[in-house]
Design goal:
ion transport; transmembrane helix; mainly alpha; 2 helices; transmembrane
Length: 53
């Protein structure tokens, strides 16, 4: 099996590093914690209107 040149290893490392960073950023920004969802629902449920007539 032929050996890879050092520049080829380096470019392969850079490519996988960029793919890892992009994958992690996509997962981080697509995640919405449950606390924020529950807070939004609780603010909507707590709006009570008292009609005085």
């Amino acid at each position: 099996m032929p050996q890879m040149s050092p520049l080829m290893w380096f470019s392969l490392f850079i490519m996988f590093s960029i793919a890892l960073i992009i994958f992690n950023q996509m997962n981080f920004f697509s995640f919405k914690p449950e606390i924020i969802k529950n807070m939004k629902k609780s603010t909507i449920k707590n709006k009570n209107f008292n009609w005085k007539w």
